[in-house]
Structure prediction request, 271 residues.
Amino acid sequence: MNLGKIFTPEQIVFLESTQKQLAIKELINRLHDLGKISSAARYYAQVIHRESLENTGIGHGFAIPHTRTDSISELNVIFGISREGIDYMAYDNEPVHFIMLSIFPTEMSTSYLYLVSMVAGIFKNKDKLSRLQKSETPKEIYDLLKDNAEKYYENISVTDNKHVTESANLAGVPSSDLDFIIKLDRLYKMSEEQNPESLKEKINGIRALIDNRSLTYYDRMRTKCENAFAIVEKNACSGCHMKIPPIEVNEIRKRTKISVCSHCGRFLIFL
Prediction:
Protein backbone atom coordinates (compact mmCIF):
# COMPACT_ATOMS: atom_id res chain seq x y z
CA MET A 1 0.00 0.00 0.00
CA ASN A 2 1.62 3.26 -1.17
CA LEU A 3 0.56 5.78 1.46
CA GLY A 4 2.00 8.64 -0.61
CA LYS A 5 -0.75 8.15 -3.18
CA ILE A 6 -3.39 8.72 -0.50
CA PHE A 7 -2.07 11.56 1.62
CA THR A 8 1.07 13.50 2.59
CA PRO A 9 2.51 15.00 5.82
CA GLU A 10 0.57 18.19 4.99
CA GLN A 11 -2.58 16.22 5.77
CA ILE A 12 -1.54 15.57 9.36
CA VAL A 13 -2.78 18.22 11.80
CA PHE A 14 -2.34 18.88 15.51
CA LEU A 15 -5.86 19.92 16.49
CA GLU A 16 -6.69 23.05 18.44
CA SER A 17 -10.35 22.08 18.92
CA THR A 18 -11.34 19.88 21.84
CA GLN A 19 -15.00 19.40 20.85
CA LYS A 20 -16.03 16.71 18.39
CA GLN A 21 -17.91 18.85 15.86
CA LEU A 22 -15.31 21.62 15.94
CA ALA A 23 -12.46 19.12 15.47
CA ILE A 24 -14.22 17.65 12.43
CA LYS A 25 -14.79 21.14 11.03
CA GLU A 26 -11.11 21.99 11.59
CA LEU A 27 -10.02 18.93 9.61
CA ILE A 28 -12.44 19.59 6.76
CA ASN A 29 -11.34 23.22 6.56
CA ARG A 30 -7.75 22.00 6.23
CA LEU A 31 -8.73 19.72 3.34
CA HIS A 32 -10.42 22.70 1.72
CA ASP A 33 -7.38 24.94 2.25
CA LEU A 34 -5.21 22.27 0.62
CA GLY A 35 -7.50 22.27 -2.41
CA LYS A 36 -8.67 18.70 -1.85
CA ILE A 37 -12.39 19.54 -1.65
CA SER A 38 -14.45 22.32 -3.23
CA SER A 39 -16.79 23.17 -0.35
CA ALA A 40 -15.96 22.84 3.35
CA ALA A 41 -19.58 23.51 4.40
CA ARG A 42 -21.00 20.87 2.07
CA TYR A 43 -18.74 18.04 3.19
CA TYR A 44 -18.90 19.04 6.84
CA ALA A 45 -22.68 18.61 6.67
CA GLN A 46 -22.28 15.19 5.04
CA VAL A 47 -19.76 13.96 7.60
CA ILE A 48 -21.82 15.20 10.55
CA HIS A 49 -24.95 13.58 9.08
CA ARG A 50 -23.07 10.29 8.75
CA GLU A 51 -21.84 10.69 12.32
CA SER A 52 -25.42 11.15 13.54
CA LEU A 53 -26.30 7.73 12.10
CA GLU A 54 -23.37 5.88 13.67
CA ASN A 55 -20.68 7.08 16.05
CA THR A 56 -17.27 6.44 14.49
CA GLY A 57 -15.21 6.40 17.68
CA ILE A 58 -14.01 2.80 17.28
CA GLY A 59 -11.97 2.60 20.49
CA HIS A 60 -8.34 2.82 21.60
CA GLY A 61 -8.52 6.63 21.25
CA PHE A 62 -9.18 6.43 17.49
CA ALA A 63 -12.10 7.79 15.43
CA ILE A 64 -12.85 7.50 11.70
CA PRO A 65 -15.46 10.11 10.64
CA HIS A 66 -16.16 9.76 6.92
CA THR A 67 -18.60 10.12 4.07
CA ARG A 68 -19.06 8.51 0.67
CA THR A 69 -19.92 10.85 -2.19
CA ASP A 70 -19.77 10.63 -5.96
CA SER A 71 -19.05 14.36 -6.22
CA ILE A 72 -15.31 13.63 -5.88
CA SER A 73 -13.09 11.19 -7.75
CA GLU A 74 -10.39 10.26 -5.24
CA LEU A 75 -9.87 9.19 -1.64
CA ASN A 76 -9.26 12.29 0.50
CA VAL A 77 -7.82 11.69 3.96
CA ILE A 78 -6.67 13.93 6.80
CA PHE A 79 -5.25 12.79 10.14
CA GLY A 80 -5.82 14.86 13.29
CA ILE A 81 -4.11 14.61 16.69
CA SER A 82 -5.63 15.95 19.92
CA ARG A 83 -3.19 15.99 22.83
CA GLU A 84 -5.92 16.96 25.29
CA GLY A 85 -8.43 14.42 24.03
CA ILE A 86 -11.98 14.76 22.68
CA ASP A 87 -15.17 13.45 24.26
CA TYR A 88 -16.30 11.46 21.22
CA MET A 89 -18.69 9.01 22.95
CA ALA A 90 -16.56 6.18 21.57
CA TYR A 91 -17.46 2.51 22.03
CA ASP A 92 -14.99 2.10 24.90
CA ASN A 93 -16.00 5.47 26.45
CA GLU A 94 -12.40 6.66 26.26
CA PRO A 95 -11.48 10.12 24.88
CA VAL A 96 -10.34 10.25 21.27
CA HIS A 97 -6.82 11.51 20.58
CA PHE A 98 -6.50 10.56 16.90
CA ILE A 99 -9.02 11.23 14.13
CA MET A 100 -8.70 10.00 10.57
CA LEU A 101 -11.31 11.83 8.49
CA SER A 102 -12.01 10.51 4.99
CA ILE A 103 -14.11 11.68 2.06
CA PHE A 104 -14.22 9.28 -0.86
CA PRO A 105 -16.26 8.07 -3.87
CA THR A 106 -18.25 4.85 -3.53
CA GLU A 107 -15.97 3.04 -5.98
CA MET A 108 -13.04 3.51 -3.58
CA SER A 109 -14.79 2.00 -0.54
CA THR A 110 -12.50 -1.02 -0.58
CA SER A 111 -9.34 1.12 -0.55
CA TYR A 112 -10.81 3.13 2.32
CA LEU A 113 -11.59 0.02 4.38
CA TYR A 114 -8.07 -1.29 3.90
CA LEU A 115 -6.65 2.05 5.00
CA VAL A 116 -8.81 2.00 8.13
CA SER A 117 -7.78 -1.56 8.91
CA MET A 118 -4.11 -0.67 8.48
CA VAL A 119 -4.26 2.38 10.77
CA ALA A 120 -6.48 0.65 13.35
CA GLY A 121 -3.80 -2.03 13.69
CA ILE A 122 -1.45 0.58 15.16
CA PHE A 123 -3.82 1.16 18.07
CA LYS A 124 -3.79 -2.53 18.96
CA ASN A 125 0.01 -2.58 19.20
CA LYS A 126 1.38 -1.00 22.40
CA ASP A 127 4.81 -0.21 20.93
CA LYS A 128 3.41 1.43 17.78
CA LEU A 129 0.80 3.33 19.76
CA SER A 130 3.48 4.59 22.14
CA ARG A 131 5.53 5.84 19.19
CA LEU A 132 2.48 7.56 17.77
CA GLN A 133 1.68 9.24 21.09
CA LYS A 134 5.25 10.47 21.48
CA SER A 135 5.56 11.86 17.94
CA GLU A 136 5.95 15.63 17.92
CA THR A 137 5.83 16.50 14.22
CA PRO A 138 3.59 15.57 11.27
CA LYS A 139 6.66 14.03 9.59
CA GLU A 140 7.25 11.64 12.52
CA ILE A 141 3.62 10.52 12.44
CA TYR A 142 3.63 10.19 8.66
CA ASP A 143 6.78 8.04 8.72
CA LEU A 144 5.17 5.73 11.28
CA LEU A 145 2.00 5.41 9.20
CA LYS A 146 4.02 4.85 6.03
CA ASP A 147 6.15 2.15 7.65
CA ASN A 148 3.06 0.41 9.03
CA ALA A 149 1.33 0.58 5.64
CA GLU A 150 4.25 -1.17 3.98
CA LYS A 151 4.39 -3.91 6.61
CA TYR A 152 0.61 -4.33 6.53
CA TYR A 153 0.73 -4.83 2.78
CA GLU A 154 3.57 -7.33 3.13
CA ASN A 155 1.57 -9.32 5.69
CA ILE A 156 -1.39 -9.46 3.33
CA SER A 157 0.94 -10.65 0.57
CA VAL A 158 2.48 -13.52 2.56
CA THR A 159 1.31 -16.92 1.36
CA ASP A 160 -0.87 -18.70 3.89
CA ASN A 161 0.26 -22.29 4.48
CA LYS A 162 -3.30 -23.47 4.74
CA HIS A 163 -4.18 -24.15 1.11
CA VAL A 164 -7.83 -23.68 0.22
CA THR A 165 -9.22 -25.81 -2.56
CA GLU A 166 -12.91 -24.96 -2.55
CA SER A 167 -14.28 -22.83 -5.37
CA ALA A 168 -16.98 -20.24 -4.82
CA ASN A 169 -20.24 -20.04 -6.67
CA LEU A 170 -20.65 -16.28 -6.31
CA ALA A 171 -21.87 -15.48 -9.80
CA GLY A 172 -24.09 -12.43 -9.78
CA VAL A 173 -23.24 -11.32 -6.26
CA PRO A 174 -22.72 -7.52 -6.43
CA SER A 175 -19.31 -6.11 -5.56
CA SER A 176 -20.92 -3.95 -2.87
CA ASP A 177 -21.15 -7.15 -0.81
CA LEU A 178 -17.35 -7.21 -0.69
CA ASP A 179 -17.31 -3.84 1.08
CA PHE A 180 -19.71 -5.21 3.69
CA ILE A 181 -17.61 -8.37 4.07
CA ILE A 182 -14.45 -6.33 4.66
CA LYS A 183 -16.28 -4.24 7.27
CA LEU A 184 -17.59 -7.43 8.87
CA ASP A 185 -14.06 -8.84 8.98
CA ARG A 186 -12.83 -5.67 10.69
CA LEU A 187 -15.60 -5.95 13.31
CA TYR A 188 -14.62 -9.55 14.03
CA LYS A 189 -11.00 -8.47 14.51
CA MET A 190 -12.15 -5.67 16.82
CA SER A 191 -14.18 -8.18 18.82
CA GLU A 192 -10.98 -10.12 19.50
CA GLU A 193 -9.64 -7.04 21.31
CA GLN A 194 -12.86 -5.89 22.94
CA ASN A 195 -15.90 -7.47 24.55
CA PRO A 196 -17.57 -9.44 21.72
CA GLU A 197 -21.00 -8.75 23.18
CA SER A 198 -20.55 -4.99 22.65
CA LEU A 199 -20.12 -5.56 18.91
CA LYS A 200 -22.60 -8.40 18.50
CA GLU A 201 -25.44 -6.15 17.34
CA LYS A 202 -23.25 -4.38 14.76
CA ILE A 203 -21.89 -7.71 13.48
CA ASN A 204 -25.37 -9.17 13.11
CA GLY A 205 -26.53 -5.99 11.37
CA ILE A 206 -23.76 -6.23 8.77
CA ARG A 207 -24.32 -9.97 8.28
CA ALA A 208 -27.99 -9.28 7.51
CA LEU A 209 -26.96 -7.03 4.61
CA ILE A 210 -24.76 -9.62 2.87
CA ASP A 211 -25.93 -12.13 0.25
CA ASN A 212 -26.16 -15.58 1.86
CA ARG A 213 -23.82 -17.19 -0.69
CA SER A 214 -20.98 -14.74 -0.13
CA LEU A 215 -21.57 -14.72 3.63
CA THR A 216 -21.38 -18.52 3.81
CA TYR A 217 -18.23 -18.48 1.72
CA TYR A 218 -16.62 -15.80 3.91
CA ASP A 219 -17.41 -17.78 7.07
CA ARG A 220 -15.72 -20.84 5.57
CA MET A 221 -12.67 -18.86 4.44
CA ARG A 222 -12.39 -17.18 7.83
CA THR A 223 -11.93 -20.58 9.49
CA LYS A 224 -9.34 -21.71 6.93
CA CYS A 225 -7.18 -18.63 6.28
CA GLU A 226 -5.49 -16.10 8.51
CA ASN A 227 -6.57 -13.49 5.97
CA ALA A 228 -9.53 -14.13 3.67
CA PHE A 229 -8.55 -11.30 1.30
CA ALA A 230 -5.82 -10.85 -1.29
CA ILE A 231 -4.73 -7.91 -3.43
CA VAL A 232 -4.24 -8.18 -7.18
CA GLU A 233 -0.64 -7.13 -7.77
CA LYS A 234 1.13 -7.44 -11.12
CA ASN A 235 -1.70 -9.67 -12.38
CA ALA A 236 -1.19 -12.12 -9.52
CA CYS A 237 -2.92 -12.99 -6.24
CA SER A 238 -0.96 -11.59 -3.31
CA GLY A 239 -2.12 -14.51 -1.18
CA CYS A 240 -0.79 -17.43 -3.21
CA HIS A 241 1.22 -15.51 -5.87
CA MET A 242 -0.48 -17.41 -8.69
CA LYS A 243 -1.08 -15.52 -11.95
CA ILE A 244 -4.56 -14.29 -12.79
CA PRO A 245 -5.69 -14.27 -16.44
CA PRO A 246 -5.88 -10.70 -17.88
CA ILE A 247 -9.60 -11.03 -18.60
CA GLU A 248 -10.21 -11.81 -14.92
CA VAL A 249 -8.02 -8.89 -13.84
CA ASN A 250 -10.20 -6.57 -15.95
CA GLU A 251 -13.33 -7.96 -14.32
CA ILE A 252 -11.88 -7.41 -10.84
CA ARG A 253 -10.91 -3.86 -11.78
CA LYS A 254 -14.48 -3.11 -12.96
CA ARG A 255 -15.86 -4.37 -9.63
CA THR A 256 -19.13 -5.58 -11.17
CA LYS A 257 -19.14 -8.69 -8.98
CA ILE A 258 -17.22 -10.46 -6.24
CA SER A 259 -14.11 -12.28 -7.47
CA VAL A 260 -12.12 -14.99 -5.72
CA CYS A 261 -8.77 -16.60 -6.50
CA SER A 262 -9.22 -19.93 -8.28
CA HIS A 263 -6.08 -21.26 -6.57
CA CYS A 264 -6.30 -20.24 -2.90
CA GLY A 265 -9.93 -19.11 -2.68
CA ARG A 266 -9.29 -15.63 -1.22
CA PHE A 267 -11.50 -12.68 -2.09
CA LEU A 268 -9.62 -10.65 -4.72
CA ILE A 269 -9.30 -6.87 -4.36
CA PHE A 270 -7.89 -4.39 -6.83
CA LEU A 271 -6.59 -1.29 -5.02
